[in-house]
UniProtKB/TrEMBL annotation:
One of its GO terms (molecular function) is diphosphate-fructose-6-phosphate 1-phosphotransferase activity. The keyword Kinase applies. Pfam families: PFK. The keyword Metal-binding applies. Keywords: Kinase, Magnesium, Metal-binding, Transferase. SUPFAM superfamilies: Phosphofructokinase (SSF53784). It comes from Candidatus Flavonifractor intestinigallinarum. Belongs to the phosphofructokinase type A (PFKA) family. InterPro entries: ATP_PFK (IPR022953), PFKA (IPR050929), Phosphofructokinase_dom (IPR000023), PKF_sf (IPR035966). One of its GO terms (biological process) is fructose 6-phosphate metabolic process. Its EC number is 2.7.1.90. The lineage of its organism: Bacteria, Bacillati, Bacillota, Clostridia, Eubacteriales. This is Diphosphate--fructose-6-phosphate 1-phosphotransferase.
Length: 299
């Protein structure tokens, strides 16, 4: 989102000063919150990592007869696409019992009741929460909102899982674990989606071809159909309809109680995570590109 705003500003400046420079935006945010495109490259692989991790945590929690509550904190400041993707694990029968997104105001008392009801009934409860959940007055629930900011001036969030885990433990006396996926969810390429990788290459290829053909001031976007099989094609969108507009999870894709997602959400994301990345390995570990940095003055 911020990157597309930067592209838009650079493009407008170049036009203003009369400098010929073609600017093409290539979306890549795992937050999936860009306007004007069905989804963003990177989102699907992050979603697949999140769903896989949640399924594995569920399995671990259910190995023991001991009662347990698990709170998993997932990225997403204002849009809940990533946290909602935890529900994909439900397709395999091991998804979270509760999912909380920033699209719905958070009520701490109701949260405690939701968790307690499930825990008292089953002896287990797994919760997926977006880092950006907030109260009705707009305050982030996370206690780690500090003066620290990222490169775009946004407050850095964190510590939510630990905070909620402590509250649940004090209220119920249950064994509670707070897990923050943090950076792992955006760099877990070992469970990347082949569909996502192929579309990322397609987006880059489309951007280069458009720029070479003389196009500027556009962002590559995806236009997709899911009826009768998943199909995706690229289109070009004006940068000014993308910059600083956030695409959020539709309220109608979230259940009435605001603590889970509906089938429409699953149907939207599931086709995007299909296929295995199968990247190159070295000693059975992922092999990453090793770039030789050369100064232009040395060439």
């Amino acid at each position: 989102n911020d990157s597309m705003d930067t592209c838009n500003k650079i493009s407008k400046y170049m036009q203003k000063v009369g400098y010929e420079c073609r600017i093409m935006g290539v979306p890549k945010t795992i937050d999936n919150d860009l306007n004007g495109t069905d989804h963003c490259p990177g989102f699907a692989s992050a979603a697949k990592y999140i769903a896989t991790s949640c399924a594995e945590v569920w399995q671990d929690a259910h190995v023991y007869d001991t009662g347990m509550v698990t709170v998993i904190e997932i990225m997403g400041r204002h849009a809940g696409w990533l946290a909602g993707s935890a529900a994909l694990a439900s397709v395999a029968g091991c998804g979270p019992d509760l999912v909380y997104l920033p699209e719905v105001d958070f009520d701490m008392d109701q949260f405690v009741k939701d968790v307690t009801d499930i825990y008292n009934k089953t002896g287990k409860c797994m919760v997926a929460v977006s880092e950006g959940i907030h109260y009705a007055d707009g305050r982030f629930v996370s206690e780690a909102e500090t003066s620290a900011t990222d490169g775009f001036g946004h407050a850095q969030l964190g510590g939510l899982a630990v905070k909620l885990a402590d509250i649940i433990k004090n209220k119920t006396g249950a064994k509670v674990r707070g897990i923050e996926l943090s950076l792992l969810q955006r760099c877990g390429s070992h469970v990347g989606s082949k569909t996502d990788i192929d579309e990322a290459f397609l987006a880059g290829k489309t951007a280069v071809e458009a720029a070479v053909a003389g196009t500027t001031d556009k962002m590559v976007a995806f236009q997709c159909s899911r009826e009768g099989g998943y199909k995706c094609e690229t289109v070009l969108q004006p940068l000014d309809i993308v910059a600083n507009f956030e695409k959020k999870v539709p309220r109608e894709w979230i259940n009435e109680a605001g603590n889970g997602v509906k089938q429409e959400f699953i149907d939207y994301v599931l086709p995007l995570i299909q296929g295995e990345a199968n990247g190159p390995k070295e000693h059975s570990l992922p092999r990453f590109a090793r770039l030789k940095k050369v100064l232009t003055t040395d060439m």
